[in-house]
Design brief:
Helix content: 25-40%
Structural class: alpha/beta
Distance between the termini: 23 Å
Strand order of the largest sheet: 3-2-1-4-5-6
Largest sheet: 6 strands, parallel
Shape: globular
Radius of gyration: 17 Å
Strand content: 15-25%
Length: about 220
């Protein structure tokens, strides 16, 4: 099944197939979202670590290797590679958004220079590549990413990263609201479970973005 017919929600079950996607490397950016060391660390208990094993496996076996390939393909074509990562500017996290201060899974205290808040080594940014630091789910809300993209003449953004149903989805919706063309690469993204991943891709596909596979995405460049 191609990207034109996959991940159809109720709203788009009978919609016409979208037009072919053609990307200009000079006006396209790759945005790698929150693939940080902290998310690959063991949890507080062995039981919780075991519960997260399917996610760890998808990250190590699929998402990180595929995202590395996607980054390499984009760099080779002169596509701007940009990273977003969750990190606070104050050591005590006073500058975090409310959602990151609430107890539970989304609670995060990641001072910007601490190792667990850095991008995983396999995907490390090059010296001249931009990294956006955010204390929000959306990489546009509360950052100057929108301005940066406009200043560089970017029209289309390819998104990869985690979590599909949280920061990826929030970023995609913000980008769409700003009238960027958005592509989400399925096999370069993950949620805590495959069910959450697939359901969120169905929700955002066709209206906020187009959901594609890695091999499809690299074939869109002129």
């Amino acid at each position: 099944m191609s990207w034109k017919t996959a991940y159809r929600s109720f709203y788009y079950a009978n919609a016409e197939e979208p037009a072919d996607i053609k990307l200009d490397p000079q006006t396209t950016a790759l945005l790698v979202i929150d693939i940080q060391n902290t998310y690959l660390e063991d949890k507080d208990t062995p039981e919780e670590t075991a519960r997260w094993q399917p996610f760890y496996s998808r990250m190590r076996d699929t998402v990180i290797p595929n995202t590395a390939k996607l980054i390499a393909e984009c760099r080779a074509r002169g596509v701007e590679v940009i990273y977003a990562r969750i990190a606070c500017l104050k050591n005590d996290g006073r500058d975090r958004s409310l959602s990151q201060k609430k107890p539970g899974f989304n609670y995060l205290l990641l001072p910007k220079d601490r190792e667990d808040g850095q991008i995983v080594p396999e995907l490390a940014p090059l010296a001249d590549e931009i990294t956006i630091i955010k204390t929000t789910d959306s990489a546009l809300t509360g950052t100057n990413l929108r301005l940066i993209l406009h200043n560089m003449g970017i029209k289309d953004v390819i998104c990869a990263g985690i979590f599909t149903d949280q920061c990826v989805s929030s970023t995609v919706r913000s980008l769409a609201d700003e009238s960027f063309g958005v592509i989400v690469v399925d096999d370069c993204s993950a949620a805590a479970t495959m069910e959450l991943h697939r359901r969120e891709l169905e929700i955002i596909n066709m209206i906020y973005c187009h959901v594609v596979q890695l091999d499809e995405a690299v074939g869109f460049f002129n």
